[in-house]
Amino acid sequence: MASTYKVLIIGAGPIGIACALECKKRNWDYIVLEKGALTNSLFNYPKNMTFFSTSEKLEIDDIPFISNNPKPNRDEALEYYRRVATSNTLNINLYEEVTAIKKLENKFEVTSSKASYVADKVIIASGFYDIPKLLEVPGESLSKVTHYYNEAHPYAMQNVVVVGASNSAVDAALEIWRKGGKVTMVIRGSEIGDRVKYWVKPDIINRIEEGSITAYYNSEIVKITEKDITISTPKGNVSFKNDFVVALTGYQPNFKFLTDAGIHLSDDTAQLPVYNPETMETNVRGLYLAGVICGGMETHKWFIENSRIHAKLIADHIKTLDS
User: Fold this and answer.
1) Is residue 126 domain-shared with residue 255, that is, in the same domain?
2) Which residues form the domain of 123?
3) Are residues 127 and 199 part of one domain?
4) How far apart are the C-alpha atoms of 297 and 11, rounded to whole Å?
5) What is the pLDDT along the chain (323 residues), one digit of tens a residue?
6) Order of strands across the sheet with 220-224?
7) Looking at 198, 228, 247, which one is the last position of a domain?
8) Which residues are 289's β-sheet partners?
């Protein structure tokens, strides 16, 4: 028999946790389902990652986030959100993936990898970190190619291509170079990204200008083999020895999951989900979005600091429906 809840939340990241806190404050019967570890996306961030934001901008529900640094790192964030979830005894099921959402007459039937649920309202706060944007070139499926970066040590004394010019790509390139890797960056645009952290950007530009890191601008990978790589540049194709490719070209939401639930997407390349920004309710009555998933392919627009308000917007709207 399916378990029944007033609110079912998909995703136990910072925004999913914020939604759970709002439900608990209102004494609503709720559950959070998370397919991985608690704050799974943060857990999969590089080990030495430092946030762009200060700790107070990452706080949820006015619970203080104390950091030893001007800007907190990955481990401090994991500790903070873990403490928030455990100290508030939030009802979270980890390692349970939601596979389907079906709208019934006035409720939702939610199927997971472990059970079935019925909920009055559903909040999708699942983020976008699980599906990388592929290069779609021959050789991308080789084991030497990864779309995620954890730490630099495995790349020491290796010829490494880093694809991209965002914060993640720049951080990876600098760390790998400092750990003894020979780094080549392949950048589609004409320069390092505008949104790269201001204290990091001069570092990467200086390393490129002095020749410590090689950078090919206005360039793309053409082919990857076991031992080599070929890229197209403004001066023609270039091939050279290569041991690893770290393709940090971004990620995207699971659009099929959204459309299967009945959520409409915009017709342009942004594929923005349809929702009311005042209530976060989608075109499916009773189905809400929260967090970075609201941005579709525009994954740079929503962060923890500007989407943490979504939890209260949703809870306030649900409360008005109960009135």
Assistant:
1) yes
2) 3-131+251-322
3) no
4) 19
5) 789 999 999 999 999 999 999 999 999 999 999 999 999 999 988 888 888 889 999 999 999 999 988 899 999 999 999 999 999 999 999 999 999 999 998 999 999 999 999 999 999 999 887 789 999 999 999 999 999 999 999 999 999 999 999 999 999 999 999 999 999 999 999 999 888 988 899 999 999 999 999 999 999 999 999 999 999 999 999 999 999 999 999 888 899 999 999 999 999 888 999 999 999 999 999 999 999 999 988 877 888 899 999 999 999 999 998 87
6) 220-224, 228-233, 236-241
7) 247
8) 124
- Do residue 126 and residue 191 come from a single domain? no
Say how far residue 254 (Cα) sits from the centre of its chain. Answer: 11
Rounded to whole angstroms, the Cα distance separating 93 from 211 reads 49
Q: Is 180 helix (H, G, I), strand (E, B) or coil?
A: coil
CATH code of residue 25 = 3.50.50.60
Say yes or no: 302 and 257 in one domain: yes
Contacts of 93 (CB under 8 A, 6+ apart): 31, 32, 33, 34, 112, 114
* Number of structural domains the chain divides into: 2
Same domain? 139 vs 19: no
> Is 178 in the same domain as 264?
no
CA distance 13 to 223: 36
- Same structural domain for residues 155 and 113? no
Q: Which of 221, 247, 273 is at the close of a domain?
A: 247
Helix, strand or coil, per DSSP, at residue 52: coil
What is the rounded CA–CA span in Å between residue 319 and residue 264? 25
Number of residues that this document lists for the chain: 323
Task: Give the Cα separation of 102 and 118 in Å (integer).
Answer: 10
Give the global pTM. Answer: 0.91
User: Tell me, what amino acid is at 174?
Assistant: L
Same structural domain for residues 291 and 216?
no
